[in-house]
Each structure stands twice: as C-alpha cells, then as structure tokens.
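>> received
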Amino acid sequence: MNQFTFEGREKSVLIGGMILGLVCLVLSFFIDGSPHASEIHSRFWTNFLHNAVFFTGIAFVSLFAICAAISAYAGWYAVIKRIWEAYSLFLIVGLVMMTVIVIGVWGHFHHLYHWAGEGVTTVGSETYDAVIAGKSGFLNPTFYTVATIGFLSVFYFLFAVPIRRMSISEDKAGTADYAIHRKIKVYAAAFLPIAAFSSCALIWLWMMSIEPHWYSTMYAWYTTASWFVSALALTLLTIIYLKSRGFLVDVTDEHIHDLGKLLFAFSVFWTYLWFSQFMLIWYANVGEETTYFKTRRDEYPVLFFGNLIMNFGLPFLILMRNDTKRKFGTVGFAAALVLFGHWWDFFYMIKPGVIKELSHAEGAHGALPSVAGFDYPHLLELGIFIGFLSLFFYFVFNQLTKATLRPAGDPYYAESIHHHS
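>> returned
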C-alpha cells in the first residue's frame, strides 16, 4: 500500500481532539489566576504561544533534517522522507499562529513580552527599564514582526514547498532522476546556513525574551535539540501508526532501530546541553544569570525535576538496551513519553518566566505565587495539547494523501530499502 487514505474515522477522532483543544483554550481565557488576569489573560496567551512554538519548531527541524540528510548523501531516510516533508509543510500553519502572537504584541492584547510594554524604553517613564532599553534595537515589535513573518515565510515558500514539489516530480519522472535531485541538493545546501542563523533569532525573540533581563548563549542550541527530539519521537509514533494500517511496508526494524538510536542519542545530547547551561551558570554564580534556574528549581520543583526525569532518566533507561529499539511497543512508549516530556520542557521554559515578569511588574518580591496552569500542566493545558496535536496530525495526514508514501524516484530509495544497521 503506497497511497495513504485519510479515513472518515480518523478525521472524526482528530476533529474531536481539535474541538476539545479549542474548548480548553477558550476556558483558559476565563479561568486564569495570574496577575491582571481580567486584562491580559496570560494563561490563554501562554498556552497558545507554548503550543504554537512547539509544533512550529517540529515542522522547522523536520525540514532541517531533510536538508541535512540530502547534503550528507544519506540514503537510509528515503523511506520515511514523505513524513518529514508533510511535517515541514506545517510551517504555514505555524506562520498563521505566530502572526496571531505578532498582532497581540502590536495591540497589547497580551503581556508575554515585558519589552513590548508601553514606556519600557522611554527615558523618564515610570516603567522605564535601562536594561531593556539597551536591547531595544533587537527587542522591539518591528523586528519581532519582520523576523517572525519574514523567516517563517522564507522557510515555507522558498524551501519547504519547492523541495516537496521537486521530490514529488522525481516520482513522476518514473526513474531516479539525478538532475532533479541535484536541484534539491542546491536548495538543501542553501537552507542549512540560513536556517541555522535565523532560527536562533526566532528562538531568542519567541521564548528567551520572555525574561529580557536574562540570556544564555546556549539557549538556542538547547531549544533546537528539544524540537529535534520531539520530531524524532513524533516520527516514530507516525510510522508505528501507519504500519499498523498496512502502509510503509519498506520501513523495517532496521529503520526503527536507527530512529530509536537517534532518539536515545539526542535525548542524551539534550541532557548534555541542559547540564552545560545549568553548570556554567551555577559555577559562575552571577545573580542576573542564576535567577532563571533558581526560580524554576525553588518555585517550580515539579517542572524542574519532572523535566529531567521524563527527558533523560526514563528514556535513557528504556532505550539503553539495543533490542528495545527494535520493539514497536517499547520504542513507541518511549517516543510518546519523550514527546510529552519535551512539550513539558517548553512549558518549563515559558510559563515561570511570564509569571515572574508579571509579579515583578506589580512590585512583588520573594516567592512567586502558585498559579494554576503555570505551576505545572493542568487538565486545561493537557486538553490544549491534545487539540494542537490533533491539528498537527490532521494537517499531516492530509499532506500524506497528496503523494505516494513510496518515493520510488529518489536516487537513494533502493539504498534505503536495503538499509542495515
């Protein structure tokens, strides 16, 4: 079976998940205990930003993985490349979602970013902040808008769409067409440096600038690693589901094993970045740097330690044995755990910072208040996650119907189906 069919039952389940997510998102607009809840609805906006950034990032790193594999003359991934292509096209949905955040910045509909507040960079204003004013050349609504809409548009329209179109045209050619593949390689090689530099700016703007007085040179690496591990986990879950329906017959235990190894390896790599960032800040003991980890460790221990347990401890123990990476049940459980764990990681990066900035804006000092939906994911947050995940899969499954799952025209496809690790 090479042509995926998006059945009515699948559509019904995913639409139900999206409705659940929408209901929970709307409820979070009204059920909000954060400071100034009636004015800025921080629970709603942080939930929206959290999930928009998480799934947009998965789309981005999927495109990056395709381009990296093409540039490295990799062949093993060809049997699953249709999945990553479908993921990458979700960038258009991410563009729409992040445009909503942009509109909120200009309209002051939310207070996700303290630097966007009125008077923050105006000398003499009651809210003037010298530190933020010094960063205003980067942290300002205009640059946020241009970078967000501009970079995402470039990723989608200039790279994701053409690469997908040329990939499909290879199949229509009937045989492995190296002329088309050479064109794809040009796009892939161009995308990698552009994406590497521009994605850092997006990560700093979307997430790190939530706490504008704090910064880390490792933050972009850390966030991208979290995105990539999430994409690997989602890829494994997608493959397992498609194979359960009789698709992807050319995907063997060897491919699952390699994806399992990547999931294991990059979970360790993510932990290395987590520890490196933490250790350097702890060792230097500079107050303006330690505030990030001290806040999370002392005020949000469930988030702090849960992050390490779900994203390092459990995956390490489960995937350490070689044979577990070939068992669908075990690797599927690990993938589901890691996907949720890194969604938790983004919650950990976003939520405490917003509450801290709102509390400081009120002049509060000492321990931060415990606020539902910010201390750890509550039922509404879990429902919203299900909704966004359903939206992602609905979009991806629609894309999978538009091309054969077997890219027989790819020059490396024969190598891929005979792959042995």
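>> The chain has one domain: 24-417.
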